[in-house]
Each structure stands twice: as structure tokens, then as C-alpha cells.
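Work through this protein:
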Amino acid sequence: MNVYEEIRAFYQSYTGKKQIIGKSVAGRDIFALFAGTGSGPQIISQYAIHGREWITGLLALYHVRRGLSRGGAWIVPLANPDGALLSEEGICSVPQGFSFAAQGADLRLWKANLNCVDLNVNFDAKWGTGTQNLRTPSSSDYIGPYPFSEPETQALRDFTLTVRPAATVSWHTKGEEIYWEFFQPSARRARDKKLAAAIAKSTGYPLVTVKGSAGGYKDWCIEKLAIPAFTVEVGRDAETHPLGRETLRGLAARTLDALAALIDALER
């Protein structure tokens, strides 16, 4: 099975709370599964918003199975299902009349959705100000015609506004590091760094400051919702994109308790 089929099968067999939060450009379901309890801090954890980082979608299933003894997490394992299939298999069913604007791209390294929009620069958070942003369709870094132009970012936005989480976590590859800031005022910055430190202690990944990035899901959660939000880059930087299934157990071993660590820190 490919990554989408595997996650869909898991979703169909899952007996816990779950829902489909939207559709991709090609009409594929975007799934969300709930782990934990309804009491205590509630968070959202999203994965594979970049196509070539599809391995994080399978990592999400480890996190669902791990569960939470307190607090709750809505887990969105495959925020970009079409892009994931392009990277994993080099093929993807597309709407009639659709043609790729980024001809000649190595599909294994594809990050964008089927509209050639990089979803993690399509959120309304200093949109279009990133140093690597592109304004023409591409396999990565294209910001789209306007914020939230894509069905996938609209789905994640609307779901987040419905849940109103205490914090969010985004899972990417690669580098084994954690991003936690986006122009927060000093009081919130101190709060968020302490929470990020809890994730760092659980995973062993260091906290890193990133400059010149904007328009991501993390950025939008911090800027517009004023909540803590974190990006966790899994996998050694020496590895090449896309990380394969042979890396999955190692990724899971480092991250299985990260969501619980964040919830514990939120309760303090």
C-alpha cells in the first residue's frame, strides 16, 4: 500500500473519535484522528504538509497508537495527500484538464500540492515575505495567489479554528531540530520556549532559531491565534529526501513521548 492507502485503512479501522476535515485538490480525504481524553490541554499535531516528507504521515500512526494518558491530541497524519503520492510513487490521479506548471521537477522531491503551491507558505502569517518564497508555480516554495488559496490549507485552518487548541505541533523532515518562534512578544516568547524545551528534552532535538521563513502553519498559529506552535524536524540531516520506510522505527523511537511531554508542560 502507498502512504495514502495505509493511512486511509488505519482511519477506517480506527474505533476512536475521528473525522474527515477536508479534501485535497484531487479530492482525496484529509483525515484527523483523536488520541487521549477530552479533559486537560487539547492540541493539534499535523504531518506531511510537504509531499516529500510523507514518512511523517506514517509516524503519525505511531503517535495515535501510543495514545495519551491525559489531555488530547487531534492528529492530522497527511495534510498533503496528493503531494505525498507524487513523491512516493511519482504518479497521482489529477483533475481532468490539469497539467503541472513545474515541468521537469524531480517528483521524489516534490513538496507542493497539485496546484504547485507549497502549502507551508500559504498561511496568512507575513505571507510572501520569506526569503525563499516564489511567486510562480513550482514544486516547492510557491506561496500561491493569495493566503489560504488551497483546499488543504483551508481545511487545516478551519479545523484549527473549530478545535481552538492550546498548542500545535507540525512534523517535518529533516534535521533533528525544533522551531518554536515567530515574532512573539517577549512574555509569550518566554512561555513558548519553555514548552519547546519540554519537546526537546523528550526527543533529544535542540531548539533552533530560523530567520527568513514565513507563511507556515506554525507561524499562523503563533501570529493569528496567539498560541504556542512548534515545528519538529525529524531524521538526520545527512539522510536524503525523501526519507524511506526503513527510517520509521528510528523516528518513532525518538518522538513517541513528545506529545505527552508537551501536554505535561502545558498543564504546569
